[in-house]
Every structure is written in C-alpha cells, then in structure tokens.
Amino acid sequence: MKLQCLLEAADIIVSDEMRELEVSSIEEDSREVSRGSLFVAVTGFDTDGHQYVGQALERGAVAVVTEHDVSEDFKDSRILVNPAGDNRKLLADISAKFFDYPWDRLISIGITGTNGKTSTSRMLTWILEKHGFQTGLMGTVGHLIGGRDITASMTTPGSLDTSKMMNQMVTAGDRCCVMEVSSHALALARVDSVRFDVGLFTNISQDHLDFHESMDEYLRCKMHLFDLLKPNGSAIIGTYTPGFPLLEGAETFGINENDTFRISDISVELGQVFFKLSMDGIQVPVRINVPGRFNIFNAAGALAVAVTLGLDPYSAAESMRDFSGVPGRFESVELGQDFLVAVDYAHTPDALKRILQQASELTENRVIVVFGAGGDRDVSKRPLMGQIADSLADIIVITSDNPRTEDPDLIIQDILGGISPRDGLIVEPDRRTAIGIALQTAVAGDVVIIAGKGHEDYQILGKTKIHFNDREEASAALKKVLK
User: CB 390: neighbour CB atoms within 10 A?
Assistant: First the structure.
C-alpha cells in the first residue's frame, strides 16, 4: 500500500518524493522492522517507542511516524510527525486500513466483563464450530486461527496484531471471530477500529483499579465496546450480578422475569449443571457436563449470542452437552483421591467468592483454599479477597501469586488485613509448598481450590518469569499424598 494512501486520513504531511513509496508492513516493535516497513513510535508505560527510532531507520524503515518532533536527535526526511500526537489511535486506524478491515468479512463477537470472558468465549466458539462455522478466537488462554492454537501473551492483542490476526482468520477460512475484549484494550484503543456484530457484557466487579481511576471509569471503558458495534449490531448484557449497566435497546440475560434470555430451574451436581433458558415464549433445557454454578451464566451468555446470530436455540443448547470445559477454569486434578481438587483462575474478589460458594455447595466436608494476590496490581482488592476466604473457607492457605516487583510478604500482609484471627489459617509464601500443605491437609469429602493462576504456566518473580503450573504442582503433590 502506498504511504500517502495509508496516512491520508491522519493529516500527516508526507513529502512529494515519499507519497508513492510502498509500505510492506506496519511495525511498532523496531526489532521487527525490515526494508519497506512503516514504524509507528508509541509512548508506552514501560517502554517509549521513540527510543528506537534510530534502530528502525537503520533497519530500512520506509518511514517513521512519531508523536512529537524528534529533529534534535535525528535529521532524516523519513521521520513524519503525527500532529494529533496519539499514535495508539493512529496505529489502530492504519492497521485496519492496511489489512482491509477484516472484521467486515467475519461475523465478529466481542465479549467483555470482569469475569467469565474466557469461559463464555470458549463455549460460544464450541457452539459455532458444532454448527459448521469455522471460528477464530482471541483470548486469555490462547488464540485460535484456522484451527491452529497460538499462545497468547495478553487477553486482547494490540491493535496491529488484532487487525493482522483477524486478516489471518479470513485467509484461513474462518467465518467467525470470537474475541475477549479487556478493559485495557478498550482504554488503549487496541480495538477502536474493529467493528462487532455482537457485543456481550458478562458482569462487573472490582479489578484493575491499579489502572483505572475508579469503578465508574472502569465501567465506562467496558461500555465502550458497544460504541464499536456494526450498524445492525446487537448488544447483550448480563443482569445476574450487581452493577450491570443499562443500555437502551440491549438484550439481557439473567434470572429476572424481564430478561430477554431468562435462566430458571437451576440444578447443580458435582460434575454437571442443568438449567432452562426462556426466550420468545419458549423454554429450552440446557445441560453442561462441566462443574460450577457460575458456568450456568457463562453458558447462558454464549447461548444468547448464538441465538442472536440466528442459530436454533434447541440445537445450540444440545451442542453444549459435550463441551469439555476450559483450561484453568474449575479444572479438576484427579488421581483417584477421595477429595476434590480444582485449579481456577479466580483472582478478583468476586471470582474468588463465586468459586468458594461453588465449593461450599459441592463439599461433603470442608472447603480448603490456596490463593495469593498479584504484585504491582490493585492493592485494595487484597483484604477483600482475605475477607471472602475468611467467610467461605474452613482452611485458608495464603501464598504468593505473581509477586512481580513487590515483596511477597507484604502482599500477604495486605491479604491478612481482611482475615480475623482464627484456626485453619496457614501462611506459606512458597506456592509449591503451600499447595503441598493444602493437599496433605485434605481428607475424604473435602474440596480444595487452588485459585489465582488457572491456565497460567508461569510465575513472575521480580521481572523474571519462571515455569510454574498449578495443575502440575497439584498433581505432583497428590502423588506424594497417595503413596
């Protein structure tokens, strides 16, 4: 694509001799620049792309777009200044144009909310695939393009990668794209140029207040998803938890009489859940062979989207019967022990509350929980998580999550601020040892929840990422217990 064509809507002055230059790729990482690339320098939180302008020029960039004048450091006619000063927005716009707006050739579904995005998106992808719609996926656990699994480094990729991956989906024959859309992505313009056929809001509870100024601002970011709907796009909002937003014209799902998709007749068993979903005068029975009351609401959201897209509700519900679950979401670790062990990603107060309430319903004896809190993240949720564990668990093992650059002992002290003096409280900063203690403590009929990391296979200590997998650790600890 010609440089002038790519930048024409941005009011960036391009000299006559550069207008017809061909752009072979767009890059925001100078290490990826090659001859013919357009490098866009973005001011980040940890790294400033302007520090790498020289490297991009040396590697043969056809042009470099900066957010401010850098002529004091570089005298090169290839440097162009964005007068708007916002290269995040520019990157979203030109990436969309470069890859020819791939969402227009896909049925695109965006799913946002504090909890449930991953399970809902995986369930919806399952339903669509079962009905013959090859589906691409972007999410926390991993991405899927043309049936190929791709490791995910973040829930929602940057705007450049989002456009590129959705274009790859089109090329690979995908007909649909299901995308988890994080509040960070919405706040940082990663999806500002994407347009969705359906936007789904699962729920909202406290999280990411290290990034967002307040819960109100957090909710406003989430609601931005509905600004990105296609002209005939549909909005669907979950009403089953407090704090859900009101949006004129939106469909809803929950347990209220006036919900568009109403959940009723809930039944929970150890390995499966049942409910009925009512809509347009019909009542559809649903069974999922995956444990967890919260999965009822995830399934209802997925079915609401499927029906909104035109699938038969009975057929969509039937296809859920053999859904196999989501890695790290109430994922059981089973080696023949006489107590339940489950790994879950719950790392917010609301998610921890839900998983422990579910454990309370399932246990024949005690609830044991192992959890910590992430470092360099929202401090205020730590005592809240301690308080929730105090009220719902019989035995609490406080440990490290991803401490990052914080002192693990200080994070633990923050959590302990929400726990009253009590029996059954164990503090062990080493997560491997903590998991071992919990499983050595468990007896017949107990439910042990190892919360916080779920599908993650790493732990971040300082700025170093080491291999650590709760499922592997639980399995190794169980082998010792069962000897």
Answer: 17
Distance of alpha carbon 397 from alpha carbon 63, whole angstroms: 55
> Which conformational region is residue 87 in: left (phi greater than 0), alpha (psi within -120 to 50 degrees), or beta?
alpha
Measure the CA dihedral 260/264/267/268, to 10°.
40
Q: Torsions phi, psi of 267, nearest 5?
A: -140, 130
Tell me how many helices (H) and strands (E) the chain has.
Answer: 14, 23
Q: What was the pLDDT predicted at 330?
A: 87
d(CA 391, CA 259): 31
**What is the distance, to the nearest Å, from the Cα of residue 253 to the centroid of all Cα atoms in its chain?**
20
Give phi and psi for 118, each to the nearest 5: -65, -50
pLDDT tens per residue, range 196-224: 999 999 998 766 566 656 878 888 888 99
How far apart CA 156 and CA 166 sit, in angstroms, is 12
Q: What per-residue confidence (pLDDT) applies to 450?
A: 98
Sign of the CA dihedral 236, 241, 245, 247?
Answer: positive
340-344 and 331-332: which strand pairing?
A: antiparallel
Res 210: pLDDT: 63
CB atoms within 10 A of CB 335: 12
| Domain at 102-322: CATH architecture | 3-Layer(aba) Sandwich (3.40)
CATH topology (fold) of 3-98: 3.40.1390
β-strand 464-467 against 458-461: which pairing, if any?
Answer: antiparallel
Nearest to 39 by CA among 214, 72, 74: 74
What residues does CATH 3.40.1390.10 cover in the chain?
3-98
pLDDT in tens, 19-46: 999 999 999 999 999 999 999 999 987 7
Its sign, for the CA torsion 56, 157, 349, 444, is negative
The token duo for 275 is 């409910």
Distance of CA 399 to the CA centre of its chain: 23
Q: Which of 52-56, 61-65, 288-292, 380-384 has the lowest mean pLDDT?
A: 288-292
- Identity of the residue numbered 133: F
Residues of the chain with CATH 3.90.190.20: 331-481
Report whether 189 contacts 88 (CB < 8 A). Answer: yes
How much of the chain, in percent, has pLDDT values that exceed 70? Answer: 98
Which segments of the chain belong to CATH 3.40.1190.10?
A: 102-322
The residues, ordered by sequence, that sit 6+ positions from 160 with a Cβ below 8 Å of its Cβ are 26, 27, 28, 91, 95
Residue 78, CA atoms < 13 Å, CB-side half-sphere: 20
Distance of alpha carbon 61 from alpha carbon 319, whole angstroms:
49
User: DSSP assignment, residue 35?
Assistant: T
CA atoms within a 13 Å half-sphere pointing along the CA-CB vector of 29: 6
Is 152:139 a contact under the CB 8 Å cutoff?
yes
331-481 CATH fold: Protein-Tyrosine Phosphatase; Chain A (3.90.190)
